[in-house]
Design goal:
The protein has two domains: 207 residues, von Willebrand factor, type A domain (Rossmann fold, 3-Layer(aba) Sandwich), CATH 3.40.50; 108 residues, Immunoglobulin-like, CATH 2.60.40. Helices cover 27% and strands 24% of the residues. It is built from eight helices and 17 strands. Strand 9, helix 5 and strand 10 form a beta-alpha-beta unit. Helix 1 packs across helix 6 and helix 2 packs antiparallel against helix 3. It is globular, with a radius of gyration of 21 Å.
Length: 365
């Protein structure tokens, strides 16, 4: 990766594992440490009874939601239980409920817009440059699965997020920025703050957008908390995909008898929650060989969705958080059945955002 910092040359498994045990054990279960040094000032024919290809190698959801006055739009991915994407669905195949009340779908279309995604990457001195190196390397791999018309931005964070490259179609520019990263300056990892600032920036970006978060999941320094990020994720039309960089090291520590680490397990749960709330997915690869399938799945998912839209009745425009549920039915109105190549029935899986914040009457025009 050119000038990308090389893996810690003197790193050895026992030493790394010992460091990880010490590091995660030092992070309280609320994901925060006592106040530390302040950051420096200044940054988609009728459905077939057989699930057709393409196949998402790692089944994963994705969706985005946007509220424009009284119109609610969100994206849905439909697969079978083996991860094969169901294409060719029509409006009549979808049933939608808002807080348990069925709503008519007024807008429907397969999503075919270019991808717009922020690659948010932890780049701190945790374990020296070991995890920073992994994040930069894995981010570079993701670029190989984007098309020329896709937009990507690169943001790194330690004590604070830094926009390295704003939205651009120039993937070489992103690679250059990754290659130019110097040795991490701070050991702090302000995950919650980086998420909140990135979501604030994305709120000003129109259309479908998403975040690819590459991180250990640690939050060692933040004025915000997990609840703050949860609330913001319910408000913003952005989908989060997470790739955890510390699973292999955690599993290695367990296998060597160091025991389970509650702080790391909580970090994983938080990343799972980010993805679930927004209709995304989280992966925690143990082997480098899993990565190509994971990053390919992110792109495949984003290119094989349906956008659904509805207008909630006045009685439901209350400014509160509403639960959404989407189901898939056949021409007879019964749950759609899918079969594999051998004619075996497979369960249909719908991946969509959990809910949305309804508009308030006072916000209507």
């Amino acid at each position: 990766m050119g000038a990308t910092p090389s893996i810690w040359p003197i790193l050895r498994w026992p030493l790394l594992i010992a460091f990880l045990i010490f590091f995660f054990a030092a992070v309280p279960l609320d994901g925060q440490l006592p106040p530390g040094p302040q950051p420096p000032a200044s940054g988609k024919t009728e459905p077939s009874q057989q699930a057709p290809p393409p196949k998402a190698k790692s089944p994963a959801p994705q969706s985005a939601i946007a509220v424009e006055t009284t119109l609610v739009n969100f994206d849905v991915l439909v697969t079978d239980e083996d991860g094969r994407i169901l294409s060719g669905l029509k409006r009549g195949n979808f049933r939608l409920t808002d807080n348990g009340r069925e709503q008519p779908i007024t807008n429907f279309a397969p999503v075919n817009a270019p991808i717009t995604i922020v690659m948010l990457m932890e780049y701190s001195g945790i374990a020296y440059d070991y995890f920073a190196y992994k994040a930069a390397s894995w981010g570079s791999d993701f670029l190989n699965h984007l098309e020329p018309e896709d937009y990507v931005a690169l943001v790194t964070y330690d004590m604070k997020p830094t926009v390295r490259v704003d939205f651009s179609r120039n993937k070489a520019q992103i690679r250059d920025a990754l290659g130019a990263l110097s040795y991490p300056t701070f050991r702090e990892a302000n995950l919650f703050g980086a998420m909140l600032e990135t979501l604030d920036r994305l709120e000003r970006v129109r259309g479908k957008k998403s975040i690819l978060l590459i991180t250990t999941g640690a939050n060692t320094f933040s004025a915000a908390n997990f609840g703050d990020v949860q609330r913001r994720l319910r408000e913003i039309d952005a989908t989060v995909f997470c790739i955890g960089t510390a699973e292999a090291e955690y599993m290695a520590s367990e296998s060597r008898g160091y025991g389970s680490n509650l702080s790391y397990l909580q970090s994983k749960n938080q990343l799972d929650a980010f993805a679930k709330i927004t209709g995304g997915n989280a992966w925690f690869p143990r082997f480098q060989g899993e990565l190509p399938s994971i990053v390919d799945s992110v792109a495949v998912i984003l290119r094989n969705q349906y956008r659904l839209g509805f207008s909630p009745p006045e009685s439901m425009r209350d400014g509160k958080y509403h639960k959404l549920n989407v189901s898939i039915v056949g021409p007879d109105g019964k749950p759609l059945k899918a079969t594999d190549a051998k004619g075996k029935n497979r369960k249909v899986i719908v991946y969509a955002r959990e809910g949305y914040v309804a508009p308030k009457p006072s916000q209507e025009k």
